[in-house]
Amino acid sequence: MTTPHWIFGDQLGPHFLTPAGKDGPDRGAPVVMIEARSVFRRRRYHRAKAHLVLSAMRHRAAELGGRVTYVRAETYREGLRRAVGGTSVTVCHPTSHAALRLVRSLPRVQVLPARGFLVSGEEFAGWAEGRGGRRLLQEDFYRWVRQEHDLLMEGGHPAGGRFNHDHANREPPPSGTRELDVPSPYVPREDDIDAGVRDDLDRWEREDGVRFVGRDGPRRFPATRREALSALRRFVDRRLASFGPYEDAMLTGDPVMSHSLLSSSLNLGLLHPAECVERAERAWRKGAVPVNSAEGFVRQVAGWREYVWQLYWHFGEDYRHGNALGHTEELPEYFTELDADAVTANCLATVLAQVRDTGWTHHIPRLMVLGSHALQRAWDPAAVTDWFHRCFVDGYDWVMVPNVVGMSQYADGGRMTTKPYTSGGAYIHRMSDLCDGCAYRPTDRTGPHACPYAAGYWAFLHRHRRLLSGNARMRRAVQGLDRLRDLDEVLRQELRRASEVP
Ligand code: SF4
């Protein structure tokens, strides 16, 4: 008799159903899917994210047809009881500590190894152990993955003679242009399933006390494997070539630029990372894309994404509570409500509007505009993590805990990164057109045009002077404080502005 296999809403690709002896579901196993309303009651998600997840689950159920038992329930526990009664089920290792605790607490649920990643937990543990106590640096992990998986390698050497092409991938946007000259990304077409989801979300808001944030629609991200494959194909064939040089740049009128927009498809499990990086590598081998672009994309998928997944489990459940800088300020209402129109600072207003309207912005606005401002204003890192998790279409616990606690807010005291990531207005000015037309000036620290990032940067360094002066990568920046004649004025001003909308 085949054992039913339960798939979560982020396990939607065919690779979650492939049989593999004792490590996989039974061949042709009946499938169980549960839409648990409590998930949407617990957290106030971006509505476009709720729409995407529900649309993807319902599309997958429609594809599986009579093979699936799809239950709409209040909780997973109730849904599983209704779906299979007392029968045993298998499930692939879920993607959060909370979900893992849940499935382990349920009787007759057999948890199979995780899927959807290039590196297994055992392989990572072996790599980490082999480092003999040295830091688990992303760059070292990434190079190991490239070698282990023979990715972008030529005769044992990295393609293009080096593992890291960051030097070619940090170009500011081309001057005098509002949009990158690149074909537009794949855009899915909504169908009746999307209309049904939208009706349900309306009804939940109206009658059931469920609350969302942000704007929903039209859907911009793939909800089916077919859509995700189309998006991958279009990205690699039409957009990857210009991805590398401008991957860190920002343009007010072009939030997407050459980015792949594949993170939500990967994190829903619609795509496997192997097929994404292999396709990029093939494009490079054919001479269709330069090596720095292929490498930049492979680094995101096979380097950063895998690294973040492994660290989430490696650091354990308490990691999320890290607050090495002692930041406790509440997130202001304009931020939690995604009220971009209330914000004067052009960079923050623009990026917040992108999040409000789409549930997405690329990695640099996340890190150097949203995250940097939160860090400078000493916002509670747990609340910042929760905000990113709720407001981004690709946000999941395993993604956001390391990315925000470790990378963006330095709340782990440097376990993940070697320094805090924040900057003054000069960085944003160099890497974008966002300062053009802003009411503030990126070089002004004080006065009516004082840029919140320029002043906030120095206030941040001053607040953590002692801690940061012990960090070799921050020492010079901290020494710069002593050369600021107007430091006292900057600090007084930032104290006053701490509770103001920037
Ligand atoms: Fe942002 Fe400052 Fe530039 Fe305005 S001047 S867009 S606040 S960095």
UniProtKB/TrEMBL annotation:
Please verify whether the record's keywords include Secreted: no
Region (Disordered) spans which residues? 155-192
Which key words tag this protein in UniProt? Answer: Lyase
Q: Name one GO molecular function term.
A: lyase activity
The protein's superkingdom reads Bacteria
Q: What is this protein called?
A: Cryptochrome/photolyase family protein
